[in-house]
Model the fold of this input.
Amino acid sequence: MPNNHLSENIIELYQKYAREWMAVRGEWLFEKVWLDRMLALLPDQAHVLDLGCGSGKPIATYLIEQGCAITGVDSSELMLQMARANFPEQTWLQADMRQLNLEQKFDAILAWDSFFHLTQDDQRHMFAQFARHAKLGTVLMFTSGPAQGKAIGELFGQALYHASLAPEEYHHLLVQYGFEVLKMVAEDPECTGHTVWLARKV
Done:
């Protein structure tokens, strides 16, 4: 399918521009309103699986400050080197989220600004991955596009692939894999226009 090949460049781009990206990203926690919604549903000392964790800043920083234990997964070794330097007491794994099988279940699964770099078919298959690492009550939060389609952004002059399913399909997949949708906001003005899904395994 057109542009799908660009999705395979994501790992290389975030490896090549890891330090530049982190400098641009900074530590402004615009996600806080949603992270707080997730945290309100979690037990004390929750274990969070962070898919596409990057350097751990600023999201893992905040979750750790709230008492969470983090297992971070990223495909960029350079990102993970920064994460290990920032938080050596946490667990950081180089892996492709599409093939992940940790034989472990978590209190929360987070895929923030990472899941939407996958192709539409890979996104569909990820719901089995979410379910594999979830137990009764596990909270799942991820960002998507607001409508079905593909978009090519830019990262330091390089084409950056994004894709999304229709909201109705995300809802169907969540239900199919045993998740109840708790909240979804498309292009949330309180979160820099992000489209966010919050669900729980039931």
In short: The helical segments are 4-7, 10-16, 18-25, 32-39, 59-65, 77-86, 120-132, 167-176. The two ends are 35 Å apart (CA to CA). The chain has a mean pLDDT of 88. The beta strands are 47-51, 69-74, 91-94, 106-111, 134-144, 149-155, 158-164, 179-188, 194-201.
